[in-house]
Amino acid sequence: DAQGQPQVDTQFSFDPADEALDFHTDDLNVCKTSEANVMSYCASLHAVRTFGWKGVDKITVIRNPVDRAWSMYRFSLNRCYKCEEMKDVLRRVENGTFTRVGKVGDSVSQNFAYSPNDSCAVQMIGHQATNLLSSVELYNVANDVRFPREKEIVEEAVRNLREEFTWIGITDRIQESVDGMRTVFPFLAENLNEAADTLKNAFSKSGEQIDNGRFSLPDGYNDDKGCPFEHRNAGMDPLCGTKELDEETITLIKKLNNRDMAVYKAAVERFELQLEVLSEYRTGSL
Prior knowledge:
Blueprint (H helix, E strand, L loop, with lengths): L58 E4 L2 H11 L10 H9 L24 H4 L4 H4 L5 H6 L8 H15 L2 E4 L3 H11 L7 H14 L41 H10 L1 H26 L3
Parallel strand pairs: 1-2
Helix pairs in contact: 2-9, 6-10, 7-10, 9-10
């Protein structure tokens, strides 16, 4: 809710924090994570309450849903999909018969509501929007391919995207996304000495007095390591299964990821707005 308290129907919830909902979130922070100044953690938005992080600065990067599904398929082709054609995988996910246990073609009982731990299936079902949900109740039904509460899921995901994140990047424009993030968070600059000089010049141009031109960097500090953002999980060209996307496969992707299409549209709109604000900041007209 608006005060950061979970809206949970415990009868249908799998959240590990449910048994402790009567306690303050600090009591759950066995590693004192809520006291950390900077922490890198990739998780669903609804999980941040477990760590007492409702008010922290959050960053996300949104990808075109078609590109994301295609990348997921290629990345997990052997582990998850056993070289099966992508359109056949998507059909089985849609009709509730997908499983990575056993062999393709085995008889499988129909189950439309996939477990959130079944990553091979749920990664294909509007997963970006699912991870933007703050309501555990909606999160629990997000992997039901009958889509019983899709309108609510889309509304909450888009609202959280617009209201909960300090910076939103776009995978299609990753360099602009990284450059903007470094501007918003100067401590993530590729070189801290250069970032301090840039900040000093920006403040000087605006006529503000700077008492500490090093911006808390230790005297004599020289950033000789830098902070590169490297591409760590590059995809692989498929050696089996689907080699190229066709229109039928793309249609199936969009059908299972309709909520992600709405999230992606909202993310692109917000990204353009962010760039406008940063442009005004850099030119001193903000």
